[in-house]
């Protein structure tokens, strides 16, 4: 922010409460209350009303016009704002324990990379690719998008359809042609779409994503994970993307609700590299907090949402803590800023590392004679963090009721199953002695 703008903002009326906070805090509050407006518009209104949050907010609520004419940043780009601590900054991640800033029923908006990696299990790199390469990849995916499908799934006896479209890609041409692999993925719970071979531009970018993600994983381990070591069940090997799930959100209303990604082929403590192209959208995360035995809401602060703004050409790395301990979503928007090339579309590539040893030729089958899915108990305190194989047949469209079968998974400290060469012995043990047969949470959780 330039000196002239800073001076104007300091002229705000001195009132108790929010008016005493710094500019970044006011902008974050405006973003939370008026998500249909861009950060540039929030700043314009704050400047026009001399830095007064209340006046700017009231004007935003009652007007559809911008108060001043000012040069906008590139369409679809969400500028980063260093918000997350009220003093305007954050200490080094290795020197202070991050305090939870979320509150139940509220959404905290984070923009700056340091704030995002301090308060969520994610890290973000803006302007990830050279502009020409990002546009070439975006155009390739736009050309592919008419072949995308809306996946369907079943829950509580009802068949539902995804709000957005998607397609599943494998890097290996042999895997795409393999009838067994093709049949398995076609019947998969969330990936019920035709298989395709990874496109040329996607494959080029995958090598860049691989290098960046591995550096981020190493940095995350050093700066944020206990004792600078890998987590229990986290793979010690380098992350090698070999598959990708590409989502297309066409317009402000297309979205996906809170969920954790399926671990069946990724294994425990999975890492995912997510590249956003086109329209900027809001990626929300929420920590999973098990209810206390007495139903206490003392941990309600951890149940609020955090919104991470994903502009065009940004890479979000979801680290090893993400899938087991958090849920994520793409929230509907009241409006969006069209992108020059993608117009109203957001294309998102989630680069994934599928494990050969978790192919369904190896994994357990249930009484339905269907390959079981790998899940982690998330809500029940007594079994939280344990992995299990479970029948999920009734979550597939056009399927019958599942058999209800589940078995606790045998996984070593590196997340490897018994049939893996070098298996070190089962580390997926009960937290409470004698709890081996304790049934986990219901599938609706």
From TrEMBL:
Compositional bias (Basic and acidic residues): 1-13
Chain coiled-coil ranges: none
TM stretches of this protein: none
Keywords: Metal-binding, Zinc, Zinc-finger
GRF-type domain sequence ranges: 366-412
Region feature (Disordered): 1-21
An individual GO BP term: DNA alkylation repair
GO MF annotations in UniProt: dioxygenase activity; zinc ion binding
Location of the Fe2OG dioxygenase domain: 240-355
Name under which the protein is recorded: Uncharacterized protein
């Amino acid at each position: 922010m330039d000196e002239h703008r800073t001076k104007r903002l300091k002229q705000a009326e001195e009132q108790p409460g929010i008016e005493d906070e710094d500019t970044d805090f006011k902008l974050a509050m405006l973003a939370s209350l008026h998500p249909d407006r861009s950060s540039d518009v929030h700043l314009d209104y704050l400047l026009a009303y001399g830095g007064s949050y209340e006046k700017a907010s009231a004007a935003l609520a009652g007007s559809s016009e911008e108060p001043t004419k000012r040069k906008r940043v590139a369409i679809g780009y969400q500028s980063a704002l260093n918000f997350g601590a009220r003093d305007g900054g954050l200490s080094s991640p290795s020197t202070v324990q991050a305090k939870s800033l979320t509150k139940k029923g509220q959404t905290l908006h984070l923009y700056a990379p340091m704030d995002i990696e301090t308060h969520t299990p994610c890290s973000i790199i803006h302007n990830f690719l050279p502009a020409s390469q990002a546009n070439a990849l975006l155009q390739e995916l736009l050309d592919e998008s008419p072949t995308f499908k809306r996946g369907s799934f079943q829950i509580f006896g009802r068949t539902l359809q995804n709000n957005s479209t998607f397609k599943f890609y494998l890097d290996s041409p042999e895997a795409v042609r393999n009838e067994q692999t093709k049949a398995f993925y076609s019947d998969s719970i969330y990936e019920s779409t035709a298989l395709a071979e990874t496109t040329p531009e996607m494959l080029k970018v995958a090598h860049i994503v691989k290098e960046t993600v591995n550096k981020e994983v190493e940095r995350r381990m050093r700066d944020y994970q206990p004792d600078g070591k890998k987590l229990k069940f986290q793979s010690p090997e380098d992350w090698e993307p070999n598959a990708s799930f590409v989502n297309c959100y066409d317009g402000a209303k297309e979205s996906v609700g809170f969920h954790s990604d399926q671990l069946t082929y990724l294994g425990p403590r999975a890492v995912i590299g997510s590249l956003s192209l086109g329209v900027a959208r809001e990626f929300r995360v929420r920590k999973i907090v098990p209810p206390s035995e007495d139903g206490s809401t003392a941990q309600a602060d951890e149940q609020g949402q955090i919104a991470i703004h994903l502009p065009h050409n940004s890479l979000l790395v979801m680290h090893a803590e993400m899938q087991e301990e958090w849920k994520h979503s793409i929230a509907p928007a009241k409006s969006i800023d069209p992108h020059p090339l993608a117009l109203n579309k957001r294309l998102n590539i989630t680069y994934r590392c599928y494990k050969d040893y978790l192919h369904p030729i190896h994994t357990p089958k249930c009484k339905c004679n269907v390959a079981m899915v790998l899940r982690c108990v998330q809500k029940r305190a007594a079994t939280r963090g344990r992995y299990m194989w479970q029948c999920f047949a009734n979550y597939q469209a056009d399927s019958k009721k599942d058999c209800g079968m589940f078995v606790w998974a045998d996984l070593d400290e590196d997340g490897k199953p018994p049939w893996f060469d070098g298996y070190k012995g089962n580390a997926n043990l009960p937290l409470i002695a004698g709890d081996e047969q304790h049934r986990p949470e219901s599938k609706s959780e």
